[in-house]
Amino acid sequence: MKNDDARARDPRTERRRDPTGAQTEAWKQTLEDMDAIARQRRDDGWDVLTVRAAQTDTVSRDTGDPDRFGLVHVVPDNDADKFAETYDEEAFTEYLAYGASIGGYVYLVTELIDPSAERSILIAGRYDLALARGMITAARDEGVLYTHWKTIDGTNLGSFEHEEYEPLLPDA
Q: What is the DSSP string of the chain?
């Protein structure tokens, strides 16, 4: 019983529980933003794929491979094949990021852009700023940040190198 009482009072646990509903509202707004961006691109004649990350983690050099750091989005199985068919590291050369930091979490839509083929991939995700320190340090040390995509079973779907990574770190 003491463990339950201690856990209930842990501010990190309370923040994850979303007692005010702020996280739920922020995620809803993130998805609405992604849909609005997708609509605008489609109205402009672009081919657009939207993906809601099942989970987004921040990975530092300390978590295994010292050369693999950045954001890792887990792509749900129902989107993985379409993502793998669409994403080409050589063709998608640009990106935009739309996000905000709310309650210690970053809510983010990353748009990968293939300008020559007028294609866009939009990925919505959320990561915990409290767990991002190692990732941010690695990005600042190297002058780049990576975004990686994998399936739930760990299959790598691709990576993107962000030379200008500050938009991915709102308020960090």
A: -HHHHHHHH-HHHHHHH-TTSHHHHHHHHHHHHHHHHHHHHHHTT-EEEEEE-SEEEEE-GGGS-TT--EEEEEEPHHHHHHHHHH--TTT--EEEEEEEEETTEEEEEEEEEETTTTEEEEEEEEEEGGG-HHHHHHHHHHT-EEEEEEETT--EEEEEEESS-GGGSTT-
